[in-house]
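Hey everyone, long-time lurker, first post.

I ran two proteins through the pipeline my lab uses and got sequence/structure pairs for each. Pasting them in order. The first:
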Amino acid sequence: MGRKDASTIKLPVDQYRKQIGKQDYKKTKPILRATKLKAEAKKTAIGIKEVGLVLAAILALLLAFYAFFYLRLSTDVDPDLEGDED
């Protein structure tokens, strides 16, 4: 009995959502597609931090490799050079 009147009244939130939806439909499909592509590209792009971290890791690995062989080869003494004192 009183239900018909209650169903015709819309909440302000629902009206606001409907207005926002209408604004999105006013945009053309190419504009929406371009906006989506820009957002996706920005999300998946490699940043400066990631590139810097990768370069730092490679540099640290090369430095450790070089230090390992430098210390290993510098401690080996050639016995022929020191044994000729007689």
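...and the second, right after it:
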Amino acid sequence: MALRACGLIIYRRLQAGAPSSKVGDNIEYLLLQTSYGTHHWTPPKGHVDLGEDDLQTALRETQEEAGLNSSQFTLIEGFKKELQYTVRSKPKTVIYWLAEMNDCNTEIKLSDEHQAFRWLKLEEACKCAEYKEMQAAFRAVHQFLCSKT
């Protein structure tokens, strides 16, 4: 059986007036570092529980892993990304929605599943993410956001 997980790619825009040389330079993405395995960096995500739909899973996992409830961010219409890859010889699908923080200074409260978090600009986020599918998702999000400004 294929594994299925859902999550949110969360970003914040730095305050207006911050020095920026090009469109999108003021955008940072939230990455969480796992406290298990290879300690990889990922947006908040997790497996779908019985009776949950995909978006409910993404919202629950974001609350559990980063301490963010849905009143603290805004889901961005028009973006949804499905990643497919193999984990331990099993196919896995991860679906991400996009969300913008309402307040860029909101506190992140990690669960025991994670040991650190970072807000990173696109290139730094891609380096930390390591996996090419996640890097492609960040690039697609960034292109989507920059095309809207």
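Reply from user beta_strand_b:
Welcome! Quick read of the second one: The two ends are 41 Å apart (CA to CA). The mean pLDDT is 91.
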